[in-house]
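Support request, please re-run this one:
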Amino acid sequence: MRQFLFLAFLSHTLISFSQRITFNDPDLSFSFKKPKDWQVFDDGLVVKVSPSAADSSRTYFSITYFEDAEPFGEFPLVESQPETPPENLTPYPKKIAGQDAKYQENNSNELSATYVFYTFGQRFLIVTVQSLPEDQAVSQAFNRMIRSIKVTDPKK
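Re-run finished. Output below.
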């Protein structure tokens, strides 16, 4: 009985630390879990999630997607596109939304990573950025958001 109560408490605690947000489009729907108190900024092209409005240019997770016939072709101009051509990015060891992905890390003035995956005829671009030195809690939040991404076809 104690184990059951502990598991019930643990699952309630984990759920209260995150919130699933969903974005719908005629072509697809995608969602991910974000830390409960983090802010969401959606300009209609890029969804950005940050610990606060004040940090939104220095610490953020962003996701956008483009209709494309090529899984890793050239990107349209976006603020945070990879420096390396997408076809030369490193294969990401885990799947994102059930799909193979590629990524690139940059560690110059900031710690940033770019992830690309392709599904339902759409190429997704995810960028994570944080100031140095690395904040492990922020890195873990980024990883949880990436692992929680779900993409569905709204027509089904």
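The domain at 19-152 is CATH 3.40.1000.10 (Protein Transport Mog1p; Chain A). The chain has one domain: 19-152.
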